[in-house]
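hey can u run this one w/ GLP bound, need the structure tokens asap thx
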Amino acid sequence: MFKVVVKDTYEEVSSEAFKVMKEVLSQDKPVLGLATGSSPVGLYKKMIADHNSNGTSYKDILTWNLDEYVGIPRSHDQSYWTFMHENLFDHIDIPDENVHVPLGETDDLEASCKAYEESMEGHQIDLQVLGIGSDGHIAFNEPGTPFDSLTHVMDLTEQTRKDNARFFGDDISQVPTQAVTMGLASIMKAKKIIVIATGANKAEAVKGMLQGPVTTDCPASILQNHPDVCVFLDKEAASLL
Ligand code: GLP
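ok here u go:
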């Protein structure tokens, strides 16, 4: 079931998302599912500000991230490991051992996917943060991904690689061709989910997620089957609803 909130600015969208986060942070030892991309950055800024001003502590919080590029080391400036440290982890008091990000550079990707999925067992995610790709992907589950998928290796679509080229000096040849991603079934296990989407290039995907048929052509449409999803949009992303 969806609750949809539409706001004028990215700042307001992030504030609304933060209200939900704050509520979850007030629970005993919450488990967070975190996302990369530009969409959640405003939310992370608010979490950092709240940590600094109100002393909200992350010492007892566990996090699992959605995905990571294959073939680049954690130290790479565009790895999702680096992204999460720069945009959140380095600015709050979360212990290193509480943070989980899939490994994109390893000899045995299959074993690493299995180990990642197993690491989540017994830790239901209380709040999963999501963005959405312009092709309707969530995490890196591209169109066609089975709804029962767990953590797996995904070939990235041309569209996704184009969208993400801006982080690689606008050079698509530098964008990895594969990623390790939590699967759609892994994501659906979360107790509560928030989706943040802004800008006209997300309008089609947002419409598919909320109002289209539940189909693997639009992976985000599976969220129609989840009991508790809040969607935070600006007017451009909501323009086709
Ligand atoms: C990336 C990530 C997704 C993210 C999406 C949108 O490829 N793997 O988790 O939601 O694309 O990114 P952005 O928020 O930058 O538009």
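Residues 35-39, 66-67, 131-133, 139-140, 160, 164 surround GLP (CB under 6 Å). anyway lmk if its weird
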